[in-house]
Amino acid sequence: MQERYVPEREVRFATICDILAEALPRNARILDLGTGLGSLAERIARRMPSARIVAVDHDPVLLRIARESLRGAGSRIRWVDLDLRAPTWTQALPRGRFDAAVSTTALHWLRRPALHRLHRDLAGRIRPGGLFLNGDHIPFAPEAARIGGVVREIRHRYQRRELQRRPGATWNGWWAAAARDPRLASEIALRRRRYPREHHDVANDHLPGWLRSLRSAGFREAEVVWQLWDDRIVMAVR
Where are the domains of the chain? Predict the structure, then answer.
């Protein structure tokens, strides 16, 4: 379903895995933020078999599916039910610092104050020289409104074409199917209590704001390392 909305999703995953494998020790300790179904965690575990991954999400439906579908990863992936919007979220993590934190198509849900606080919190939990990698749609700056508008229209045109061309569920269709599955009944009920309103995309910050926030949070380097239109991977070095 997600590949219909983000056709370059696998390229983004592969690029993040390439960087982690190149820059980190083989037994790296990696934090996956907003893991969802564990798609990125699964690919990291496959690429770096000795890595230890802590996968965080607050959606009980996605975590249930991730735990069961990736049971074969055993203790290499530790699943944590945790709300990244909570001011004390890092206290619920396993102790110690991480070699890297990663995220894809997740942090755009955070509003700007929560995003900037998350950057500061991450700087305290990633070791010096460690990495933060985020793959997501990050808008152009307001002063580049014309550029952003053109790019956005092209991307949406490609997206509409992919939705027509590729088989599979839509976002609403996928969640409707999950809600009909009796095995997920308790998780669906909990999800509705946690999220009484459905998610809506939040443009929490533009690209220059993202880079400034990371640098002011304590990361000594922050830059775009891959992009297609406004779909980017931002990499920061602690």
Answer: 2-237
pTM to 2 decimal places: 0.94
Give the Cα separation of 74 and 91 in Å (integer): 24
- 204-232, pLDDT tens digit by residue? 899 999 999 999 999 999 999 999 999 99
CB-based contacts of 144: which residues, under 8 Å, 6+ apart? none
Distance CA 231, CA 155 (A): 9
Cα–Cα distance measured from residue 27 to residue 44, given in angstroms and rounded to the nearest whole number: 12
Cα separations in angstroms, 169 against 123, 140, 192: 38, 30, 21
- Three-state secondary structure of 5-39: HCCCHHHHHHHHHHHHHHHCCCCCEEEEECCCCCH
The identity of residue 202, as a single letter, is V
Specify the CATH superfamily of domain 2-237.
Vaccinia Virus protein VP39 (3.40.50.150)
